[in-house]
Amino acid sequence: MGKMMKAAVLYAPGDLRCVDVPVPKIGRDDVLVRVHACGICGSDLPRVLTTGTYHFPTIPGHEFCGTVVAAGLDAEKALLGRTVGVIPLIPCRKCKMCEAGEFALCEHYDFLGSRSDGGFAEYVKVPAANVLPVPDGVEKDAVAMLEPISVALHAVQSCGVCAGENVAVYGLGAIGMFLAQWAGIFGAEHVFAVDVDPRKVAIAKTIGIADALTAGPGVESAIDRKTGGLGCDVAFEASGAAPAFNQAVKILRTEGRAGLVGRPVKDLPIRPESYEKILRAQLSIRGSWSFQFKRFPHLAWEQSLKALQSGKMVTGPLITHRVPLEKTLDAIRMMAEKKEFTHKILVKP
User: Fold this and answer.
1) Structural domains in the chain plus CATH codes
2) Three-class SS of residue 296?
3) DSSP 3-state assignment of 79?
4) For residues 282 and 254, is the Cβ–Cβ distance under 8 A?
5) Stretch 82-92: mean pLDDT, rounded?
6) Cα 311 vs. chain centroid, distance in angstroms?
7) Burial class of residue 124 (count of CB atoms within 10 Å of its CB; 0-12, 13-18, 19+)
8) Fewer Cβ atoms within 10 Å of its own Cβ: the N or the C terminal residue of the chain?
9) What is the Cα–Cα distance from 211 to 219, expressed in whole angstroms?
10) Degrees to nearest 5, angle at CA 327 with 323 and 331
11) Distance in angstroms (rounded) separating the CA atoms of residues 334 and 63
12) What is the rounded end-to-end Cα distance, in angstroms, of the chain?
């Protein structure tokens, strides 16, 4: 390992360059991770192209995994040589929310890929407490998706999905796909996975989501038929689109739960009949942000890893592109401009 490495560095919105930078110097409690793969998240599009990060220059990328190649003086030496998933959230552990174990709501958090340098690089400095050793036999490219898998797990747990319930997911990006799979793992009787793009619906079917549907007038009748006219117990809105939100409300049963996961990029108007339904049916609406990081009673990332290891969580068909570090900006622009069909793109340093 030399003193320099390749990284995709963001100098200003739209100015992402693959350049040589120094390999990060690790502290006593850090490890150095050689990146195997880093996924491009939908949030990376505005971060790289329009809004920027919290300071410049920054190396984006927060969905990544790799191999530990160096450890600080106080870091566990058994991590050396291990494949690890990387938890990008670095809570302050001092604020009121951290005291309650709600690290995703930390008031002074750091985050790899937006506030500190992330995974669009050959190497990343990571607190040793933020790595998750991966058992042999787990596909490394799948490990790079532990972050969105854990985001989806948090939403499903927050909405209390139970065995025998009927669940709908609107929006089949990566998190939507993982929401649908988690709902099935949690024992949902029917999981209706809905998207406007029939190619995403086709991918959903290949990973075992039988009730995947292309958005349109047939969705409501299909849900009505399979639920005996009761509607869904839980509906997740994972697209950030107004039509999806309004239909998600419409297909909920009385006292149903709506989980909001998608991030809108423009105004999201609520139809009057949707608002009336929320009132009259006494619906519960639950927002979900990021993932759980507390270790008691269960570390969510370990639950996600076990779902991958057992084969219950499927990721392979979601990966449509693998690109070298030098093509990171091209891949982000391709996603933003929809030049061709993409689902999950992995950057491979």
Assistant:
1) 4-145+315-348 (3.90.180.10), 149-287 (3.40.50.720)
2) coil
3) helix
4) yes
5) 98
6) 18
7) buried
8) N
9) 10
10) 75
11) 19
12) 14
